[in-house]
Specification:
With 331 residues, the chain is an alpha+beta fold. It has a domain of 154 residues. The chain contains 5 helices and 19 strands. A hairpin with a 4-residue loop joins strand 11 and strand 12.
Length: 331
């Protein structure tokens, strides 16, 4: 009986797990805002605001008239959008991959929803809010809350990236706006990796005389507590015009839906970095993400992965969002 020499036989094997590639991380903005509560079973929500200022009256006699202080009322409105997404799964693809990717597809759809949610919250923070008595009057972003793009610029430059001076000016503007920066209202800066890179070159951030945290031991992408603020580093962030005085935050025009990022429609390379406190933006979610894995009878009963989510946001107070335009390449 003949024998077979298997000494040179090489077997090709397949891993039973999917290895995810680089993907723009989404869903980072939700923890930074206030979530709406109550009856969300409707398309549009009206949220009343009350403003009271001034001081109490001085009592001048024992049985004087009852004092009355004026209260100012206004509203802000949120209009939700519904988003859906889905992926067809061909069984022949499953055979070629040797793994079942359906659960990974669900995770991928969730990331796509997270990216869209970040974009919606950023557009609400920096765009026009719907206010007034009926929640139907456009309330633009207050340009007094935009830090000049040249703040802290190097000698000979008219623009600058993120630096100590911009952070200090932002926190100072919050305080001048009467925003109480206590434990429940810590400012959070939303920046890109370009600003992270610039901050790591800023002596007032890396110098132990200014920053109690040793930066070299803080992790590759983390900015520790600096000037009493938190920091989020993301590639999902809008752009500003060349002068750093206006925003490109139209979700239907200024977003590249293929990449899940804001587009630099003015080709300025000026990032619309901003800082906010938690009560600055109200975010409605209804429903939160719903996913299904099912079969499509119209596609020969091939597997299908589906996701749905509804959300919308509105800026509640102009004083609580500060924009600090940062040039990607200062000049």
């Amino acid at each position: 009986m003949a024998t077979t020499d298997i000494s040179n036989l090489n077997a090709t094997g397949f891993d039973r797990a999917l290895l995810r590639t680089v993907e723009t991380r989404g869903g980072m903005m939700r923890p930074l805002v206030r979530l709406a509560s109550g009856d969300l079973y409707r398309e549009k929500g009206i949220y009343p605001r009350i403003t009271s200022s001034g001081l109490p009256q001085i009592k001048t006699n024992r049985f004087g008239d009852s004092p009355v202080s004026e209260q100012t009322y206004s509203n802000r409105s949120v209009t939700r959008r519904d988003y859906v997404d889905g992926i067809d799964v061909d069984r022949s693809d499953l055979n070629r991959m040797v793994v079942d990717p359906r659960n990974e597809y669900v995770t991928s759809l969730a990331q796509r929803m997270g990216r869209q949610e970040d974009i919606a919250i950023q557009a609400a923070a920096l765009g026009a809010a719907q206010g007034g008595n009926l929640g139907a009057t456009s309330e633009p972003f207050d340009t007094n809350n935009i830090i000049a793009v040249g703040t802290g610029a190097l000698a000979g430059n008219t623009t600058a990236s993120l630096n100590y001076e911009k952070i200090k000016k932002t926190i100072s503007t919050f305080m001048k706006n009467d925003v109480m920066l206590d434990a429940g209202e810590r400012p959070c800066f939303v920046i890109t990796p370009y600003e992270w890179d610039a901050l790591m070159d800023d002596d007032k951030y890396i110098n132990f005389d200014y920053n109690k945290n040793r930066v070299v031991n803080g992790g590759s992408s983390m900015i520790k507590d600096f000037l009493g603020a938190d920091y989020i580093v993301t590639n999902i962030i809008p752009y500003m015009n060349t002068a750093g005085t206006g925003f490109n935050v139209d979700q239907d025009v200024d977003v590249d839906r293929a990449t899940g990022k804001w587009s630099d429609t003015d080709v300025t390379a000026t990032h619309a970095c901003f800082a906010m406190v938690k009560s600055a933006v109200l975010h409605e979610i209804k429903p939160d993400i719903i996913t299904r894995i099912t079969e499509r009878a119209d596609k020969q009963f091939q597997p299908y992965v589906f996701a749905e989510m509804g959300f919308g946001a509105v800026r509640m107070e102009e004083e609580k969002v500060i924009a600090l335009p940062c040039a990607q390449t200062p000049a």
